[in-house]
């Protein structure tokens, strides 16, 4: 077989050379490749492939060297790069030329700098050695390395998250993230060729001559396969976005053959490392196109298998046959082995691996127990080596091939019983049965084989590619025994016959435009066609699909009277089961539609059983009969209980109606009154469904297909459910009702919603599971143990738990363990037992599963023993038969002994496939990371109360894993599960494939790229080689080395177009080079020049078929060869764009993609234009950004900006919503706003606010415990949604159209006709229906509930800020959710995650019910009184004798800090620090008594040793924040080689802040943080402290102006330059906090100068100033803002311009409010000529004004009126409205919007009432407003007196 792995550049190749190429060693340390070869005697690697034929001057030779591997795979250069560069240097080339000489195109970006974790690990390793007196480079023992790495990972986790990791998943995930290498480039692919086990066994024990033949046959098969890949699979991509696939000269490959496995047993295998570098036929070096390689892996593997078998049969005369016992039920192909090479010898060598794996599992479990995390992949390999050594019976260190063979022979003799037995064994292989006569590859045989082959392929998939057919052709040729000379011809003939029109139909319309020769590959195919991508199907498949779809179009079936449906629903209620609205609607639709074939979709947990029971009752009540069918007999038995009708398998019906005899009576009874219900229809194959539909419809009956197209599907051809839903709609069960709280029984809406997100493949769903402790990690044995332990604990507690495993082998392992532990608990022996089909054993009391339908074993009148039935053993008979009782029905049966041996297995665990349809209390699923989305969805939806996944994140210990990308870029558990969700294995029908191929959106993307590329090629061909050579010459003459730049091909194409248009390329280059700005800072000169030639990006030819595409130049348009073709290409783009736009204009709210929904109700033309843009650029619908990612090309960027501006005109500026809410979430967890999910969450928060919900309070309520380390924004959303909405599937067009509960007609009376029409078509309509249904259950009348919710929604916001049309349904839904289920006190409603391996942490929290009632908060609450203490003095001081959490008295901590101050100041003058401060500030501060400045020496324990000498203990030093524990456990200095500033609090020093040595500032790795604070202690909390407040207290008391800056040097600069007029104050490395703002409160008001905010001028500083504004205005300030020239900070300004300039800048500081107001008005600058724009700008500006003291209002209002032209009355009204929204209570932060009265249900009673909370008398406010009005009226432009546009 052949496997494929990617190789990563940088370190990626080293594992190939050191661990794979140099594998088979048993020693723990891995040496170099050369050392391995010399020590072990392996044959060196060899070069293969034709890829270097284009550079013959430096032949690589036959042997691979490590230097060559480094050059090619590590750097992306010629293997002989060193030799080439030396030759270039000797030839006198410039450095640039030397660099270019060895390039194979663009070298890989390799980042050699170690990351922070590796750097700190190296320091810890050196400290470890130093503590033991060892050399720094001494290898640290593996266990100590692991301990140090774990401790460091924990430390870095705490540094990142301010808390320790909660579990192994968080710790291992963080270690994975921080240990990744920076280099990610793909360097190539590792193809591993391994013969079957019997070949390696025979090679190991046969005579040397035979072994040589076998090894050569293996090498020849490898070479043949590689040559085939070169001829059929090797291509590269060129053109815009790689639109053209072109031929290459061949592949560059390094081949390494190895002889044994890690266990030392014979394992002949070859690694072929294929370079990613390939050369086009015209000499360019580009990257290998990996798409064909991945698609042909199986075909190549089968080719290798076929060639090897044919070679061995031809050269040795051996025979091959299918391996006995191959389990074809699993879908795996039978493995062919050499006949006679079987028995104990292969089993012995395989058992050796098992022993090692068993021991490795024990070591790995102990590792995780010791370190709290699973081992990394490299650590797993080390553990496997340790296991190898510990389990070895005798020392195994083969020194050569001869020694290996001698060792294997010795083992073979021992196993087989001596030399004679070995000879007999070999003789049996070579003197076996006579080889059967070779099958001649005749035309008849070829055609017959092709037909059989296609029947096999079509049984597995509805469509196929050539690679599928070729792989099967190889298998059939191999099985037929085609002789070696005929193999290639036979395979090709079979493929040709199978893909001929006689047997296969190629899908998709042929491209209407035929390419000229320049756009064709050497085989004549178009470069725009991906090789091997053609899709085929058969007429049989299409006929079957069309038959089912045709049945769905018919509406002439039986219709059940509506009264019968109502009666059935009433009967259900009378029986205690009331259907929810979605279930009732499904029953009504399926019973009354008259459809012959109808689809019902039922996601997991939506109550399908209840609905089907009611459907059957309704149909029968109307006089009809019901028959049930299911894919399996076990499912049909369950369906029988649900329907109360005849049920059987779908296969039984198909067999009966196809074969005729012995037709069951229930089949013959099907007629016009019959309803056939097919459950789990998605698991049925298309041919079976088609045959069933044909029979039922012909009989006059009706069919209802019930299933879920997102769960596990048919093994064979399928995909019809999606076709039915797309073409004819589907009735859907939408409300998830399965998941409940185990204690209260209340619905778990969040898990239900997360399950639906899983169903859709949304990775945000994973946040729910990690937030609730549902994802567990380890290696496979460890997670298997964890799953079993959790399952066993649940079972012991009486809970119904199920345990799922990915493979039958693992299921068997879990079953045996469960049985062993059950027997161990028995007080006496279990009695007789019997062997089962899975090699397990069973006795009385065991759980078993039957694995085959057996109708001869009845269990009642209508039931029989079925595959998947679960039983409990009651008796073991002497014959081996089992007496069993059915676990669901309680019926007894005796299973015969032969049936038991072959078809019964233990039944404690099962596979995921076996669990579909099962529901339990809890589910524990083991995954591997290789599952599909469908498997994960099923696995995580089986449990009502909890669903856990156990995921291996460590390797299996095999060294080959070290060559994979995951070893160098280790994924987290979330990464692995995200891959699973991206792996959609849902079958696709031929009908869907055709629709995808002709989809205009997909075609437009292809056509636009093809047009662009064709235009370029046409221009270059018209110029010819001489013209292009002239361009190259002119380019290099203009700029030396220009033709070697990465972007030069693009520039040359542009110059070619210029030349075709009549412009001289040389002159064009001279003109652009004459531009004022030089090229010194250009990373790619060619790209810059290309842009300069034509900034529009249209390549100087004008607009083409789309605004951003160039048109065809006139000379090309008139070209007879190219003109018509290019015109056809342009027309094709235009036609497809029109089709895309027309489709977009037809979208409904339920059918539109997410990105379009906010725009759909407001600008359909814009939606159409965006759809064309997105389609042309291939932007996925999942990208919610209207125009997708920013594009660099000038023309694209220009069009994108225009579209973005149109979107902003409708929806507002992008990013403003996210920015607006950042200040709310940053104090909770700054990572929330960095989560990719944050924009989605922010939009939802805005919708909630517009719904009148107190978002800030709701968020605080749900964040009483820490968010997870990954996906924090998504996790927060799942916490919020549990309070807002039931878990309901979003509507599609069909379900939105059909779901109409009785109260729908009254909706118009509540929201109005237009809004009601919009609500019922919204995707959230089913959720609203479900919410109203829940309200009805709670006693609400629907009309009353809707009316109340709508009134509250409107009361919460002004009319012009009410929910947008696309938000109205969601807003109503959430409002209703909070009405019927109020939020509990903070923390009380937030479930704590389940932690299986440690006790849950305590999360005590308190808080009042956050829901705001129907009245405003008390408007008379006064602001806090000013403090009496001096500025900067804390409000209270703890007793010096008080002992805090550290256990050290406060007095002692202060004493230690004072001793540190003495130490630091003594060290100051002799250090670099005074000179540094003098340079920066003009003073070394030695004589300035206001400041305590010192220096912390470089040594690790300088201060620590000093304090110890003064009597301090290590615990005291750490408690004071002056020291910290190293990973070795020793206490070291916290501050080293830093200038330190004392943070004073009056006369006390609670902490320090240190600035690193500036000599380290330029180090890219940032070895230490620039500023470092004292760690938080009993004395020091950095969020409470302000540096400079105490130091400037005297000046502040005398009236100095406080200046809020960002760092300590800025503080000093302001204070020194201020000369008593200004005092610098800085927070300590954190965002300005409310606690710090409160410390400034005494400096605000009472005639004091206003605070100046002097944050940096960068975006971060601007955001900080915005945030600080709201914090200060809440405390009565009207802050100013320092505008520093050229973006400098105060310290830089002092250093460069002097104290006077800084002082003058401070004195000239303008109002910060004015800057914020101007910025808000500027956002609407292009709309101020409209009344709407004036009002919107004014509204945003007055939010700022309203936050200020009222005496500041007039001048700002005047500015607003002047700048916007708005009517003064509108401005005054807006400021009043904004003022009403101001809250005095803490929590108003950020943009000023978060703290609005979103939760208030009634408007404020008066304008004047608001003023009391601001410390302003109502009369003063009135006077101030009158003054503002007078000012406004005085400047009002008469032309701007407009009509008021608001309520």
Automatic annotation (TrEMBL):
One of its GO terms (biological process) is DNA replication, synthesis of primer. Residues 1416-1444, 1786-1815 are annotated as: Disordered. It comes from the Bacteria. GO terms for cellular component: cytoplasm. InterPro entries: DNA_primase_core_N_sf (IPR037068), DNAG_N (IPR013264), DnaG_primase (IPR050219), P-loop_NTPase (IPR027417), TOPRIM_DnaG_bac (IPR034151), TOPRIM_dom (IPR006171), TrwC (IPR014862). It holds the Pfam family TrwC. Residues 1600-1677 form the Toprim domain. This is Relaxase domain-containing protein. It comes from Modestobacter muralis. The lineage of its organism: Bacteria, Bacillati, Actinomycetota, Actinomycetes, Geodermatophilales.
């Amino acid at each position: 077989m052949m496997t494929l792995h990617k190789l990563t550049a940088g370190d990626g190749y080293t594992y190939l050379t050191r661990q794979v190429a140099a594998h088979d060693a048993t020693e723990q340390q891995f040496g170099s490749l050369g050392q391995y070869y010399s020590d072990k005697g392996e044959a060196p690697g060899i070069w293969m492939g034709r890829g270097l034929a284009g550079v013959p001057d430096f032949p690589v030779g036959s042997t691979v060297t490590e230097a060559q591997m480094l050059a090619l795979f590590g750097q992306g250069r010629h293997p002989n790069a060193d030799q080439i560069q030396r030759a270039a240097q000797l030839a006198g080339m410039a450095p640039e030329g030397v660099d270019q000489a060895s390039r194979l195109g663009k070298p890989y970006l390799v980042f050699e700098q170690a990351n922070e974790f590796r750097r700190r690990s190296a320091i810890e390793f050196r400290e470890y050695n130093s503590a033991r007196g060892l050399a720094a480079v001494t290898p640290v023992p593996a266990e100590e390395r692991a301990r140090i790495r774990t401790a460091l990972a924990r430390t870095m986790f705490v540094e990142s998250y301010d808390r320790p990791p909660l579990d192994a998943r968080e710790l291992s995930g963080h270690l994975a993230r921080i240990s990744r290498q920076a280099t990610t480039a793909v360097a190539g692919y590792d193809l591993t060729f391994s013969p079957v086990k019997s070949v390696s066994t025979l090679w190991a024990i046969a005579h040397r001559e035979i072994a040589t033949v076998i090894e050569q046959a293996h090498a020849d098969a490898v070479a043949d396969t590689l040559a085939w890949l070169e001829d059929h699979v090797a291509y590269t991509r060129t053109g815009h976005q790689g639109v053209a696939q072109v031929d290459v000269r061949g592949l560059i490959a390094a081949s390494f053959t190895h002889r044994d496995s890690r266990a030392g047993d014979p394992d002949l295998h070859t690694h072929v490392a294929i370079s990613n570098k390939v050369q086009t036929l015209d000499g360019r070096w580009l990257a290998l196109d990996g798409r064909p390689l991945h698609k042909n892996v199986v075909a190549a593997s089968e080719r290798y298998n076929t060639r090897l078998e044919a070679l061995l049969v031809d050269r040795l005369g051996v025979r091959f046959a299918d391996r006995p016992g191959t389990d074809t039920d699993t879908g795996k192909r039978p493995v062919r082995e050499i006949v006679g090479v079987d028995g104990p010898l292969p089993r012995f060598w395989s058992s050796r691996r098992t022993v090692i794996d068993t021991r490795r599992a024990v070591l790995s479990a102990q590792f995780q127990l010791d370190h709290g995390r699973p081992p990394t992949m490299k650590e797993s390999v080390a553990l496997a080596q340790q296991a190898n050594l510990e389990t070895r019976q005798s020392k195994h260190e083969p020194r050569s091939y001869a020694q290996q063979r001698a060792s294997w022979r010795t083992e073979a003799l021992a196993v087989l019983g001596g030399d004679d037995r070995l000879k007999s064994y070999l003789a049996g292989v070579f003197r076996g049965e006579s080889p059967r006569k070779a099958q001649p590859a005749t035309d008849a045989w070829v055609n017959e084989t092709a037909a059989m082959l296609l029947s096999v392929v079509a049984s597995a998939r509805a469509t196929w590619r050539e690679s599928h057919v070729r792989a099967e052709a190889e298998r059939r040729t191999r099985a037929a025994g085609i002789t070696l000379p005929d193999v290639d011809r036979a395979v090709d003939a079979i493929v040709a016959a199978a893909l001929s029109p006689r047997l296969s139909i190629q899908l998709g319309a042929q491209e209407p435009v035929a390419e000229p020769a320049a756009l064709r590959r050497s085989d004549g195919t178009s470069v725009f066609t991906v090789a091997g991508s053609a899709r085929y199907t058969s007429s049989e498949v299409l006929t079957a699909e069309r038959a089912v779809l045709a049945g769905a179009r018919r509406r002439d079936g039986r219709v059940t009277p509506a009264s019968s449906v109502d009666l059935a629903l009433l009967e259900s209620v009378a029986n205690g089961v009331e259907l929810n609205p979605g279930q009732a609607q499904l029953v009504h639709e399926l019973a009354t539609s008259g459809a012959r074939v109808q689809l019902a979709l039922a996601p997991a947990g939506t109550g399908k059983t209840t609905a089907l029971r009611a459907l059957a009752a309704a149909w029968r009540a109307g006089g009809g009969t019901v028959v049930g069918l299911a894919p399996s007999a076990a499912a049909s038995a369950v369906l029988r209980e649900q329907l109360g009708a005849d049920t059987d398998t779908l296969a039984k019906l198909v067999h009966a109606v196809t074969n005729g005899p012995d037709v069951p009576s229930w089949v013959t009874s099907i007629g016009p009154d019959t309803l056939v219900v097919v459950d789990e229809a998605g698991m049925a194959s298309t041919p079976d469904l088609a045959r069933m539909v044909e029979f039922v419809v012909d009989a006059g009956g009706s069919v209802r297909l019930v299933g879920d197209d997102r769960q596990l599907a048919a093994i064979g051809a399928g995909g019809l459910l999606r076709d039915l839903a797309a073409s004819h709609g589907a009735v859907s069960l939408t409300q998830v009702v399965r998941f409940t709280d185990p204690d209260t029984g209340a619905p778990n809406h969040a898990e239900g919603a997360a399950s639906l997100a899983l169903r859709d493949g949304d990775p945000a769903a994973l946040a729910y599971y990690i937030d609730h402790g549902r994802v567990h990690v380890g290696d496979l044995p460890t997670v298997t143990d964890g799953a079993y332990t959790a399952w066993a604990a649940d079972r012991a507690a009486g809970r119904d738990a199920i345990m799922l495993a990915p493979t039958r082998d693992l299921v068997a392992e879990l079953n045996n363990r469960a049985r062993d532990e059950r027997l161990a608990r028995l007080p006496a022996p279990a009695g007789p037992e019997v062997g089962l089909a899975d090699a397990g054993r069973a006795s009385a009391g065991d759980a078993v599963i039957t694995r085959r339908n057996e109708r001869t074993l009845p269990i009642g009148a209508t039931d029989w023993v079925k595959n998947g039935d679960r039983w409990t053993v009651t008796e073991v008979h002497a014959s081996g038969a089992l007496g069993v009782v059915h676990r669901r029905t309680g019926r007894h049966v005796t299973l015969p002994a032969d049936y038991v041996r072959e078809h019964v297995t233990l039944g404690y665990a099962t596979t995921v496939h076996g669990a579909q349809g099962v529901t339990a209390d809890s589910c524990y699923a083991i995954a591997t990371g290789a599952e599909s989305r469908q498997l994960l969805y099923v696995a995580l939806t089986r449990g009502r109360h909890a669903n856990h996944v156990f995921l291996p994140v460590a390797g299996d210990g095999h060294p080959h894993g070290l060559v994979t990308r995951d070893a160098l870029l280790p994924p987290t558990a979330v990464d692995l599960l995200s891959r699973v969700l991206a792996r959609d294995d849902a079958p696709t029908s031929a009908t869907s494939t055709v629709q995808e191929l002709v989809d205009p959106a997909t075609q437009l993307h292809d056509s636009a790229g093809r047009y662009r590329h064709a235009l370029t090629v046409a221009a270059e061909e018209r110029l010819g080689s001489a013209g292009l050579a002239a361009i190259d010459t002119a380019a290099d003459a203009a700029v030396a080395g220009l033709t070697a730049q990465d972007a030069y091909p693009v520039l040359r194409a542009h110059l070619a177009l210029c030349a075709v248009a009549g412009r001289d390329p040389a002159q064009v280059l001279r003109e652009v080079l004459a531009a004022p700005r030089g090229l010194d800072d250009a990373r790619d000169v060619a790209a810059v020049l290309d842009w300069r030639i034509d900034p529009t990006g249209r390549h100087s030819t004008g607009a083409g078929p789309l605004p951003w595409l160039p048109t065809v130049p006139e000379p090309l348009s008139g070209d007879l060869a190219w003109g018509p073709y290019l015109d056809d290409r342009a027309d094709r783009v235009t036609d497809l764009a029109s089709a895309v736009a027309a489709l977009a204009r037809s979208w409904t709210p339920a059918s539109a993609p997410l990105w379009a929904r906010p725009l759909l109700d407001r600008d359909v033309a814009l939606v159409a234009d965006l759809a064309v843009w997105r389609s042309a650029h291939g932007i996925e619908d999942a990208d919610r950004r209207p125009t997708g990612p920013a594009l660099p090309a000038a023309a694209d960027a220009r069009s994108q900006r225009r579209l973005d501006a149109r979107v902003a005109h409708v929806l507002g500026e992008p990013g403003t919503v996210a920015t607006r809410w950042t200040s709310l979430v940053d104090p909770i967890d700054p990572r929330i706003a960095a989560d990719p999910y944050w924009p989605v969450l922010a939009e939802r928060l805005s919708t909630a606010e517009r719904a009148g919900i107190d978002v800030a309070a709701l968020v605080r309520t749900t964040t009483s415990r820490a968010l997870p380390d990954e996906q924090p924004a998504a996790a927060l959303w799942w916490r919020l949604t549990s309070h807002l909405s039931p878990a309901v599937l979003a509507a599609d067009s069909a379900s939105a159209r059909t779901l109409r509960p009785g109260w729908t007609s009254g909706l118009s009376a509540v929201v109005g006709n237009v809004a009601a029409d919009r609500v019922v078509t919204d995707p959230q309509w089913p959720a609203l229906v479900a919410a109203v249904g829940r309200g009805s259950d709670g006693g609400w009348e629907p009309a009353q509930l809707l009316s109340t919710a709508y009134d509250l929604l409107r009361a919460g916001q002004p009319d012009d800020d009410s929910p947008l049309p696309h938000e109205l349904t969601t807003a109503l839904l959430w409002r209703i959710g909070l009405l019927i289920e109020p939020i509990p006190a903070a923390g009380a409603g937030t479930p704590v995650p389940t932690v299986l391996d440690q006790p849950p942490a305590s999360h005590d929290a308190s808080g009042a019910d956050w829901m705001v009632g129907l009245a405003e908060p008390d408007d008379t609450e006064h602001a806090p009184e000013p403090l009496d203490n001096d500025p900067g003095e804390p409000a209270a001081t703890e007793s010096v004798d008080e002992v805090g959490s550290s256990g050290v008295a406060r007095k002692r901590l202060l004493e230690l800090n004072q001793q540190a101050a003495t130490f630091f100041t003594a060290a100051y003058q002799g250090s670099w620090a005074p000179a540094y401060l003098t340079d920066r500030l003009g003073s070394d501060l030695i004589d300035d008594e206001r400041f305590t400045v010192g220096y912390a020496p470089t040594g690790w324990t300088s201060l620590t040793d000093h304090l110890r000498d003064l009597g301090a203990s290590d615990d005291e030093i750490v408690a004071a924040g002056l020291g910290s524990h190293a990973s070795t456990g020793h206490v070291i200095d916290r501050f080293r080689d830093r200038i330190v500033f004392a943070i004073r609090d009056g006369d006390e020093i609670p902490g320090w802040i240190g600035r690193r040595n500036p000599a380290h500032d330029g180090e890219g790795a940032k070895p230490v943080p620039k500023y470092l604070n004292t760690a938080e202690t009993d004395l020091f909390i950095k969020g409470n402290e302000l540096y400079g407040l105490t130091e400037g207290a005297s000046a502040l008391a005398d009236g100095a102006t406080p200046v809020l800056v960002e760092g300590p040097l800025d503080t000093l600069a302001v204070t020194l330059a201020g000369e008593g007029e200004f005092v610098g104050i800085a927070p300590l490395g954190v965002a300005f906090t409310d606690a710090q703002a409160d410390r400034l409160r005494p400096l605000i008001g009472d005639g004091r100068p206003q605070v100046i905010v002097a944050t940096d001028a960068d975006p971060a500083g601007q955001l900080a100033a915005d945030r600080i504004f709201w914090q200060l205005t809440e405390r009565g300030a009207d802050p100013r803002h320092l505008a520093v020239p050229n973006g400098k900070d105060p310290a830089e300004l002092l250093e460069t311009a002097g104290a006077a300039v800084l002082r003058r800048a401070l004195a000239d500081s303008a109002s910060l409010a004015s800057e914020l107001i101007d910025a808000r008005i500027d956002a609407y600058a292009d709309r101020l000529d409209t009344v709407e724009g004036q009002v919107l700008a004014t509204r945003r500006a007055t939010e700022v004004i309203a936050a200020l003291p009222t005496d500041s209002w007039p001048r700002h209002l005047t500015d607003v009126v002047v700048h916007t032209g708005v009517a003064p009355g509108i401005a005054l009204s807006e400021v009043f409205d904004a003022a009403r929204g101001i809250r005095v209570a803490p929590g108003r932060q950020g943009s000023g919007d978060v703290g609005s009265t979103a939760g208030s249900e009634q408007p404020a009673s008066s304008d004047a009432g608001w003023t009391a909370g601001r410390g302003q008398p109502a009369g003063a406010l009135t006077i101030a407003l009158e003054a503002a009005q007078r000012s406004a009226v005085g400047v009002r432009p008469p032309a701007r007196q407009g009509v008021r546009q608001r309520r």
